[in-house]
Amino acid sequence: MKRFIVTKCIISGILALGLFLCLAFSKYNPLVSIVIAICLIAFAVLFFFFFKLSSGKNIADFRLIRFTGKLKKQLKSASTVYIMGHKFSDLDSVGAAYGLYFALRKTYNVKMVVNKQNTLARPLIDFLRFTDKDCEIFDYNEIAHTVDENSLLIIVDTHRPVIMDYLELYEEVQNVIIIDHHRKANDFVDQTVANYIKSSASSACEIVTQIIRLLGVQKLATVAATALLSGVMLDTKNFVMNTSAQTFKAAAFLRQNRADPVLIKKMFSESVDVCKRKYEIISGVELFENFAIAQTKNQDKFTRIATAQAADELLGINGVFASFVLCPCEDKVNISARSFGDVDVQKIMAKLGGGGHKTVAACQLETLDFEKARTLLIKAIKEYIEQK
Ligand SMILES: [Mn+2]
To answer: What is the pLDDT of residue 1?
Structure first.
């Protein structure tokens, strides 16, 4: 920042000196004064572009700068802009949608669409509605009638139609833009007007923060900064997983705008039932070489979240490279897998018909027989070890 101010002062000094020379010479030799004036203009233009590029480069890569340009163009020609995340929206999905909504709503007709019945981001949604009185979060049926051929749909935190929050909206809107950080899947959306998918980014919120900065927004309200930081913290497991220098730059910008980490920590807090279930799962863990395997046969509203959290926490065991938690889901067995990245759990889950990231993956087995599921899992792990 200091360097930036010093450079600005030097440039202003040169420009002032040039202007002075220009005026001084104009009396004696108009030609010299014209030449100086032309040099001055060229100098100013050059530095303007240099600064614009270098400041952009600091916050994002050139692909994102280009994408933001396309985004702006689409925004200008859109009648209504819908922003939507994925099914069972989490803090990253809702945080990214809200961050973008917040940055765009003054200029454009923007609507944030979230399935409020099926969400894992209830604390964040409640916080947004309580803190930001102008914030309206719509269900699909509330906005379905407003869609026309000039509508634009921005989808954050997923690029797979099957897990979009409202598939109906995606099918209805012609112009679609994707902003995501997941590894490209086979069922990638076919028709988009622009997309930015970067699997090395920690979270959709990190990318949205960069876009907001590229759009020239210098100041964010605390509520938007907090929403965005909550997504970064969730997807990085409090700045442990998938972080890069860009992640911390985005986080620094959000903290500068008074994002509140304590409030986010409270959003992560769990009910006593989930907590009990989580430790029940963890206490039954068995180790297969460096792989932790645990399970729960209970199927209720706590299962999903307790399973995911147990899988995360099992990585904290000494010597464990990857963790797997089995749980029932209707008439199937779900497996949640986690690792720190040394083991590619996506490859193991892919052997069982699943997918995900290197560090977070899952699969669903067409059986409710836990013994069979366990055998299949161990077989996949063995195959993975052999191939490695
Ligand atoms: Mn995410």
So the answer is: 45
